[in-house]
């Protein structure tokens, strides 16, 4: 049986981290953005810019 051709995603020059994995930096960034948006909505609601009294 002849040798199968090697694929580009294998070998010594390819990093071993999975493509679908989410890095810790990205998780922290998403968490910071979510918290910032929640704080922004809370501040806008408390100051009356958005909410029941805005119309």
UniProtKB/TrEMBL annotation:
Task: List all membrane-crossing ranges.
Answer: 28-50
Task: Please provide the record's keywords in A-Z order.
Answer: Membrane, Transmembrane, Transmembrane helix
Question: Which superkingdom is the protein from?
Answer: Bacteria
Transmembrane among keywords: yes
Q: What is this protein called?
A: Uncharacterized protein
Q: Which organism is it from?
A: Rugosimonospora africana
